[in-house]
Amino acid sequence: MIKTKNEYINREISWLHFNARVLQESKDPRVPLIDRLRFLGIFSNNLDEFFKVRYATVKRIVDAGKTGKSVLGGERAKDLLEEITKIVINQQTRSLEIFKQIDKELREKNIFIIRETEVNESQAEFIRDYFFKKVNQELMTIILNDLTEFPLLKDTAAYLAVKVVMKNGTARKKHNRYALIEIPKGIDRFVVLPKEGDKDYVIMLDDLIRFCLDSVFTMFDFESISAHMIKITRDAELDIDNDLSKSFIEKISSSVEHRKISDPVRFVYDKSIDKDTLQFLKEKMDIMGTDSVIPGGRYHNRRDYMGFPSLGRHDLMYDKIEPLPVKGLSMKGSLLDMIAHKDYVIYAPYHTFSYVTKFLREAALDPKVRRIQITIYRLASDSQIASALVNAVKNGKQVTVQIELQARFDEQNNIEYANYLQDEGVNLIFGVPGLKVHSKICLVEREEEEGIKRYGFISTGNFNESTAKIYTDYTLFTAHQGILKDMSKVFGFFETNYKINKYKHLIVSPHYTKSTFTKLIDKEIALAKAGKEAYIKIKMNSLTSYKMVDKLYEASRAGVKIKMIVRGICCLIPGVEGMSENIEAISIVDKFLEHPRLFIFGNDGDPKIYISSADWMTRNLDFRVEVGCPIYDPDIRQELLDTFEISWKDNSKARIFSEKQDNAYRKKLKGQPELRSQFEMYDYYKKKLEN
After folding, report:
1. pLDDT in tens, 245-259
2. What positions does the domain Polyphosphate kinase N-terminal occupy (predicted)?
3. pTM
4. Which residues are annotated as a binding site for ATP?
């Protein structure tokens, strides 16, 4: 096997390059202006999560005194932390430059995000009134000088670090007081000020507080006050104890609670902060050398930009699309009856997600339905899915829910839903020891004349009506009894996980996903060596399993043509002579978040096509329960082939993966029309309704 210095891209570095693609969207003039600002928010939110999990994991290796070579692909953990910090500082600098440009363009459109120094008299009156009515009573202000212990700062909460320069009788000597003000989370970060003519004005809550600082520190005889923003990010990995006297839900609850006091992994500060203030804070907070200290701009927690007010300026935002119906699948009739005769697939958000809730609500009321089983990973804050399941219980159905309490950053939400569902009589299963349940499956058993018949659906994404508006995902509805018998075995595994089942149709992790896909790749390798057409087409979120990367390199060297659409992390390097010259890979970042997992293998002219909940990541292949499903219906098979090709031909929002890792856009060939795949996809489904 040919080895190169950069045979693999480091997982963490690849993730940062993915987030750079998100940052590109905030700079792209083809993206509506307010949506560009919201992409800055997504970039910031992604970065927060990166430090909570990925950076924190590497930092744990360093703190344990280990090199991390075995788990980091030969890279020293300490060196990796330094490289990450360098990249993040560079990205933060770029993001500040982009924000300045967006701010300039907003002003040209008569939208002004003003600072406290730009407030006029009428705005000042409004701001002070707003402050005393809504903000003042919510402020948590802590004077730091005389405290024996530094207060515990909340993870990713934003704080104003305040420096109060005191007066004295002779005015010869100044004494500084230092304080922290926590920016209240229960108040909108963006305060819309009264419109003046055709001009809209917005002030950040941070600046509104700065404007009113004299009202906060009235007890001091001060000469001047300055305030600069800081925030910390804490390690978000769950440390689950082994106390046998606690239930699993109690252990998860305790671990989530422990996050509040977990070790800091990042300290971000306004780079214009006074040196003495910064030094005071770092000493008091015991900031260590292995912590990532990031100089930033005036504002932090920029994830809040995702909620920037629309101000009624629909001309500066993406048009909302109206989700389409699926041809032949009517919301008016019985979905179970329609699915009994034919498989259907919905591709959200191009199709309406309402089919999923309609399916469950129908099953909840159907007198013939005896049992409903479903896996839940992430639910909407006000979930119609949960409501339908409770409704089913109230109608005498046996309802079993496998709810994953360790769904990253949704642990508390899932704990609350677990308690609610349990109180309503739903039978809950809390997973398999040592494995996360990431599969997206639902099974309904119905008593019919010929006996029990199964109906169900399987998806590449969560059963969440909120994210279904912005995540692209396939959901297959089927009454294929072979597939659903396999699905029943998966639910059986949740109950008796010491027993390893065999499946005729489904591809199930952790036992079969890696081996099955490896065999499918081997089949293409054999075809290529026999001089026959051999190809693989893959669409997924991330590719980080070095074993699967090696397998794809092997296939490339054998002559298999491989096309890959990977939204996020891709540890494979395409186009390297003697290693991956037959592999092309792109990433699409656009209006919607590309989320489906689709796998197509040429199979000597009779393609094998699968959808799955699993990316090719070590955790998905070996440490999670994932389910992949074959597509048998000829119409759906063609539809998935079509949708892959639409995405693959994107020459507007597609970035090319290469050894340079520069996120270069795919260039439009001379005479070639521009194709923006997400817009083209919607038109594709509109045309299907017309034919």
Report:
1. 455 566 666 665 655
2. 8-113
3. 0.89
4. 46, 471, 567, 595
